[in-house]
Amino acid sequence: xxxxxxxxxxxxxxxxxxxxxxxxxxxxxxxxxxxxxxxxxxxxxxxxxxxxxxxxxxxxxxxxxxxxxxxxxxxxxxxxxxxxxxxxxxxxxxxxxxxxxxxxxxxxxxxxxxxxxxxxxxxxxxxxxxxxxxxxxxxxxxxxxxxxxxxxxxxxxxxxxxxxxxxxxxxxxxxxxxxxxxxxxxxxxxxxxxxxxxxxxxxxxxxxxxxxxxxxxxxxxxxxxxxxxxxxxxxxxxxxxxxxxxxxxxxxxxxxxxxxxxxxxxxxxxxxxxxxxxxxxxxxxxxxxxxxxxxxxxxxxxxxxxxxxxxxxxxxxxxxxxxxxxxxxxxxxxxxxxxxxxxxxxxxxxxxxxxxxxxxxxxxxxxxxxxxxx
Length: 374
Fold this sequence. Notes:
This protein is α+β, with helices and mostly antiparallel strands.
């Protein structure tokens, strides 16, 4: 396999040592050093149908890692054009020779149906996976949050505030997570590309519901569905408000139904009734978000700290419902309680646990229920 690099002054063809000579790939990028000419279309063509975009990305990554290492087969004269070419291509759209447009992942996302639905792709990074090589639940929730924020941004209603619209900023309002439910059918692994679809619906006078679906970009298989309820709160008085819901009306879906059909009430736990207890948990600076409290995503980690190790090591989390009851601040001392529910064996396949995350003084912060399967 070989790659052809073209700059305003040079044209170089390099044989790639990690590929056989069967496939050839021609890559052209013009004027990567000139800002004006960088707007020209970058393109690549694959002469053999066995090659794919995924294989191309892997090959480029290998080129960069090899070229960046001294004493390797690529000398310093080749490092600069390779890095410049790849960097320029990552910033702009690519076009395949058959005329179909494509984007190297991850993408910045796009609006569908004139705004109500937002779609964004993510590549699972090495720092987002656990010891089993699969993505963590925290990383999946981060994808959901990122998609929601970019939805507002693409719609042109996001200001400098964290998820705040123009009117929200003017009225000192923020979104606060109230309740969430998610179902995970399959965990993607490192380097997998997933596609997140997100939309929102009004729920009551001062709240909105966010719905998401995560799919495998390659197969189209649904990996996860999630739903969260957010309430408008004044960041100074810490009281709820409904002043700006009209601003979001054009972006609400009016026909969607809640994903979670489980109407069972979440059970509170006393320390005397808990089967497992984890104490002395201390949220720190890295757990805080821009709203000056511990992120609702970080709180999930502390809830799961109360899950028995035997369950974590032998089963995988397949469903979770959480109810956020109080804010949590930095340097609070937490305790995470869990208890097998009365019907904790579901069809002899799933284990169900009730959870309570509270301050050690007794104030409950999060109440929840999780399901685990082999």
